[in-house]
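Mods, move this if it's the wrong board.
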Amino acid sequence: MAGRFRVLAMDRRGHGASAGTGSDAFASDYEVDADDIAGLLGDGAHLVGHSYGGVAAMLAAARRPEAVRSLTLIEPGCYQAAADHPLVAAALEANRAGLAELPADLPPETYLAAATDAVGLPPLEPTPRRLRAAASALRERPCWEAPIPVAALAAAPWPKLVITGTWENALDLYRERGGEPIMACARVTADRIGATLLRARGAAHYPHVETPETVNGALANLWASAP
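Not the wrong board. Structure tokens:
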């Protein structure tokens, strides 16, 4: 996509190559992210957000609708936009219970291992970058609690696209705990904000990585059709 467009890929604060925020080197937050994204929109841009970033992108789009040319959400964690759906409501209950059980002094190494073990995935190598991200995640408000400006997004005139995987190749536990609620969230969110829903066949939580041709083709078509 960078061969055809000017692409800015943002690391959230406390993640990747980005610095932290405030006195806490690891602190991050969807509201802070939304401010950062809104500042990057300039005079107008096509906005794409994945997972937690999808929530921040929704907030940023509602804050600066005049600077948005299109909005694409890839497997967004915007559970509050679909909190009345049974699968999403059950996931919220389970997530809150799990978060409440975490000790305040939980080491990042333990959290990183638990994140994959809880859904039956093999452990990730505890690289410095992943451990920094795990430490950031332990100190931030979860994206699934973010209030979503559904009405403002539905009223916005620019085109919207929600992309979700079909998860048929995922491990059963991963699909049950992660895939089913997020696919339901994607369907409901797309309907409520007036977005087109695209199911990326064969993908799970990372359609842009697992099925890049599908996602890049959809983005190119969306951007070409936008004012």
